[in-house]
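Budget justification, computational time. The allocation requested in the original proposal was used primarily to generate structure tokens for proteins on the priority list. As evidence of use, we reproduce two of the resulting records. The first is shown immediately below.
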Amino acid sequence: MRVLLVEDDKELGDMIKRVLSAEGYEVEWVQDGFLALKNLSEKDYDLLLLDLMLPRFDGIKICKKVRESKDIPILVITARGQIEDKVEVLQAGADDYITKPFSFKELLARIQAVMRRYKRTEDIIRVGELIINLASHEVIYKGNKINLTKREFELLKLLSQEAGRVVSREEIYRKVWGYSHEEGSNIVDVYIKNLRSKLGDRPAKLIQTVRGYGYKLNVENVS
């Protein structure tokens, strides 16, 4: 699980990173709000662990900014213990908070609790008007049910899970077909054409071709 840790206290940040890494988390650590927003705009994370008192952008502003575009668990680390401060944190979009000083046992427990709450809804992928139910294999686009073959469904699921990122043909072959790309094969292009036809994506605005590389679900044109 990928965690973005935003903490300007070097000693605390180093300790948190070491504890989470020992538990199997993949941790990226930045020490100011500007770098936090930059990383969040460029990468996907499973959890945002966020201090409030930060250089350049504070935690409240980051929470609000993240909630404009991302559905990611946010656990705030705060030294503010007043009820008003905690309410402000939750209203800004955080899922939970932990007050300093804290034990790492409590931190791990709160992370696990937050992730359990998100796991309950992970069977649904929503990208604009595109809804994919992973449990029932149902696809709804612009209010219409779309009937897909198993392979078409897996291809659309992959593009949706990586929405906004270009997915190479090699990665598509490996994750959808289970083997490496065969030179000269155009099977991915055929399936993309079928998906576009069934979704009514003509001209192609939802599934964008990136010439010489692969495809991406274009989040700017999903509605």
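The second record produced under the same allocation is shown here.
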Amino acid sequence: MDNVPIGVRELEILTLSAGVYSSGINFSALRAMHDWTVETLSKRPAQMQDVNSCTDEYTYAVVSIVGSSAALAEYLPDGGEIERASKAFERVVGRKIRGIVALNLSGENALLAVQAAAVLDVPVVDGDGCGRVFPLLEQTLFTLGGITAGPFVLAMPGEETITVDVAHERTEAFARFCVAAAGGWGIFFGYAMTGQQLKATTVSGSMSGLLELSGDRLPTRSRSKPRTICRGTISALEYPGHMSPHALDGIAFPSDAVSILLREEGGRSRLIRLEAHNDIFFALADGIPIATTPDQLLLVDENYRVVDIDRLVLGLRVEFVVIDAPPAWHTETGRSLAGLGSPLILQTPERSRA
């Protein structure tokens, strides 16, 4: 559907639902982005556009928050970041922006896409570039479709704006370096695309899917229904630091690693080990692999709300669930981009029911 308005009422739903597919949200940053977006939408609602109606006559820009969510909560926007970023981006690509796409729909990014569309008076595309959440700007379905992020623009609070043109695989590294020198966070405009490129790479319908949810609970009926792997109690939390599988793959991620141990309740009473780095990326049961990124691996509480991995405590009863990622992430190139290298063969009852 085209021209679906997203106003303050829809924003409230989106603010709750944006935590569904993320295992780590800074709620202070989300509230700051919410308040900023309410101010914008109270003047003019955004309009949501179906991916299939995007045309090649137009140029679409991908937006994302870069840097630390904690920094966003402490160093509030000056209000001009979106306009500064968009104008600089239009100068560098030589075309007007006619639509906005979210890099992913986790937390602040979902709200930012709506706000940017309203500020610029262009549609926000009903979709996103990941279908789940990855920590790096280059870990997208756009990348898998051969589209590069640069040249891209970063706008930081304090009226600082910078245009960057680097090798695609260095996008996150350079962006993070720039925002670290300017307060810790910024707004990213990149991945200039045509309508045809969007149709070939974007996960269609993901934003309207969030708007159909009743809050911050996982959907029980959706295109990708969560699969319950087990229920259990957190028995240990370990912090191995730099010695995580992702770090050993040569990828620099912006947070520390943690190992989560669950004691399964009922059934086989297995010991479940979850490895997390920004989000949960690998799971074993009694030493046997049972789930892995690129599927989204989540812990939910007894109310079926996603648990922030930074807020886990010993003794918490949780459910371990998996949401299947878009098929492109399960190709050899998709798994490599996700930081996994060669595919793992998971011959388990849980996987066979996928």
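A brief technical remark on that second record: The mean pLDDT is 86.
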